[in-house]
Design goal:
The chain has 250 residues and is of the alpha/beta class. The protein has helices at residues 13-24, 36-48, 63-77, 100-126, 149-169, 187-190, 202-214, 224-235, 238-247, and strands spanning 4-8, 28-33, 53-57, 82-85, 131-136, 174-181, 219-222. Helix content is 51%, strand content 15%.
Length: 250
């Protein structure tokens, strides 16, 4: 069981579901997100269920604010033993239809925001030589998928960063977990206009995420039909994958 957790993107979706499950396990959760009213409603719901929750209004696209918030809350709580970089955004367009502002917005949240969250959490945990850092990447980051250029690239970057942190921090008593979900039924995916195979309920996704973390898995991938397909895709030679990717329709 974790004592204190800091979770970004906690006002809705997977972040909120993880926060509620952790609170029911006895963890005090600091809910971080931009939308204050949704955050306060989430915190009230957790408290009404007997849990401990506090609110941190935070835009992770501002790295300086991320560092300031995590350092402050780490002191207030007596120290985080779990930090989850969950906040993320997505854009689904062919590269020739993308605006650079869209690309920049995705990278600022999914890369800079996630990196800052993990790095700030790491700094706090290094003082105590213990803790768990979790990044919510994606199965989409395992190969370059059509129409997901910025999103796939951002999640690939996060996955590689987590892999590096895992190697560097193993000697420091800090665990690093890369969570790679497939499609989850959240507000972000509701705008998708294509079929999403094996779409997961957000509660089931949260359950599978925490099961993997508690079992000590370095990488948590789900659901298995999509995960196995993406692991197979990663093994395909680049030339062959290029042909396959060009023929994908969604």
């Amino acid at each position: 069981m974790y004592n204190n957790a800091f979770i970004t993107g906690a006002s809705s979706g997977l972040g909120l579901a993880l926060s509620k499950r952790l609170s029911r396990q006895g963890t005090r959760v600091i809910l971080a997100a931009r939308r204050e009213s949704e955050l306060r409603s989430a915190a009230e719901s957790i408290r009404a269920d007997g849990g401990q929750a506090q609110v941190c209004v935070l835009d992770v696209s501002q790295p300086e604010a991320v560092f300031e918030s995590i350092r402050w809350w780490d002191q207030q709580t007596g120290g985080f033993d779990l930090v989850i970089a969950n906040a993320g955004v997505g854009r689904t367009k062919a590269a020739y239809r993308l605006d650079w502002k869209d690309v920049s917005a995705v990278l600022q949240v999914n890369v800079m925001g996630a990196f800052a969250t993990l790095f700030a959490g790491m700094e706090c945990m290094l003082k105590r030589k213990r803790g768990t850092l979790v990044g919510i990447s994606s199965l989409a980051g395992m190969r370059g998928l059509p129409k997901t250029g910025a999103y796939s690239a951002s999640k690939a970057a996060l996955g590689t960063f987590l892999e590096t942190l895992r190697a560097d921090l193993a000697s420091q008593g800090i665990r690093v977990v890369d969570v790679r979900p497939g499609f989850i039924d959240t507000a972000m995916t509701k705008g998708n206009r294509f079929k999403m195979p094996f779409l997961l309920d957000v509660e089931r996704a949260a359950e599978m995420t925490l099961q993997g973390i508690h079992r000590g898995m370095p990488v948590v991938s789900y659901p298995w039909p999509v995960a196995s397909t993406m692991y197979l895709a990663r093994s395909i030679p680049d030339l062959a994958w290029g042909v396959i990717a060009r023929r994908m329709r969604y």
